[in-house]
Amino acid sequence: MEALVNDKLLQQGTIAESGPKTVDPLPSDGDFAESNARIKHKNRRKGPLNVSGPVKGYSEAIRNFWYPIAFSADVSGETMVPFECFEEPWVIFRGKDGRVGCVQNSCAHRACPLHLGSVNDGCIQCPYHGWEYSTDGVCQKMPSTKFVNVSIRALPCLERDGLIWIWPGGGIPEPTIPSLLPPTGFTVHSEIVLDLPVEHGLLMENLLDLAHAPFTHTSTFARGWPVPSLVKFCTPAATLKGFWDPYPIDMEFHPPCMVLSTIGISKPGKLEGNTTSECSKHLHQLHVCLPSTRGNTRLLYRMSLDFLPILKHMPFIDYLWRYLANKVLDEDLRLVLGQQDRMLRGENVWNQPVAYDKLGLRYRLWRLSIEAGSESASNGR
């Protein structure tokens, strides 16, 4: 994967470093149309890749990964969790043995959404005529009529490290699942799930970019942050993870749609030291950006701390964490939604990348390489 990314970078040129730029002289009166056309052509020529226009359909290759879709704590014995993944409706629930299953959210009889029904003795019951399905999608009961063998689609589904995972692709599932647990010594304080009206790739690139913090998050965690003269993302060990300079923040993109980060802090909203190892207290974050549809994302957020574990037991603390998370997210969403609007109108969201765009750019190149491989395989057939 890293070789694919590096090859792509070499083919398309290096990222522009920050520094002074030459500016074309202003056109004379009457030449604005010609000047604008020249600027537009010039900008398109400089970009290392073009991400513009309507969001393309999802390739089979991008589906062939394990995707976290819910937190284990949100799925109890009689709970159903409906969701969309790659523009298809699904629902998860626990069977009689307590194991979780994922089936299509449509009854085989009349296509009624199953999540409107209930879970009875480990089977999900359709609210329309009472047909019941087990976690493997096989119909177990068919009241008021002669029983026939009927099934609905089911996805490979398992539970690991407090998360529920599915394999939505047609390929053979990988035998291992990466661990997304926080490091030793951290306590999980909050797990939040949100459905957002934004394409998951744009949200991923926002999460992989920290240079925007002192300009965007001025009323939340970056309030009072100074604006550095230079921001860099350093990758000493691998191309998809590293640390931010001058911020004490480590960050990693974990394919296909996860971002892990560790932030060194001294007190809320304040940074301490230049690296996480210099800090005495840390906040660890997991973001999962599940592609629901071409314009919507299911976001899973987990926050952990390595200090003050007693906070977890304070009354109403969950409401406080949710309020703070939503406030930070709102600061991002108004910008990313605007960015999405411009992209759909044909503007290139990767028109002029600079040095601190490194991790977000490498995510995009990884995704394009996966999709290009899928197209090559299809053409070969």
TrEMBL record:
Pfam families: PaO, Rieske. Residues 16-50 are annotated as: Disordered. This is Rieske domain-containing protein. InterPro entries: ARHD_Rieske_2Fe_2S (IPR015881), Cholesterol_7-desaturase (IPR050584), PaO (IPR013626), Rieske_2Fe-2S (IPR017941), Rieske_2Fe-2S_sf (IPR036922). GO terms for cellular component: chloroplast. GO terms for molecular function: 2 iron, 2 sulfur cluster binding; chlorophyllide a oxygenase activity; iron ion binding. Keywords: 2Fe-2S, Chloroplast, Iron, Iron-sulfur, Metal-binding, Oxidoreductase, Plastid, Transit peptide. Residues 38-47 have a biased composition (Basic residues). It comes from Ceratopteris richardii (Triangle waterfern). Residues 66-166 form the Rieske domain. It is found in: Plastid, Chloroplast.
